[in-house]
Structure of Molybdenum cofactor biosynthesis protein F N-terminal domain-containing protein:
Amino acid sequence: MAESRKLSDAHLNLVSPTELIFHTTSSMTDSPIDIQSTKERGTAPYKAFEVRANIYLIDFNKPNYEEQVSLVASLSTGQVLGGISGFHDIKEGCKRTWTSFSDASIDGYADVTPFAPTAHLISKHILYRYVPRDGTSTSTQIRRRLLGTA
């Protein structure tokens, strides 16, 4: 699936119960991120894919935290689902991955409700391809098959 350039120069404020993420996509290589609750600021290279009309998968890496952030955002409804993944260190140098999910909305949309639970992904296959970034973190690529478009 080719990257989408439709988010270039877009401006999105993502609102969740715990934090506000100020996300401006001024170019396809840098995306300023401002998380108000922790006063973090920085830029992150990202990739955006239009997986359905006006629905985007946005991925970026937070190298200082060894975390990968994936957002699914509907520009039609204002709904956003965010996932943050990272590693737990456990005994004897082994690592385990963790992922937390959070609902959010795009500021300015009225009456946004979280994505409803669904059983549509049961029995779908996900292929993860791990790619080393600066020797410590990974990114994942999700096949179109997950979205039923393969």
Q: What stands out?
A: The first strand starts at residue 10 and ends at 15. The CA atoms of residues 62 and 106 lie 21 Å apart.
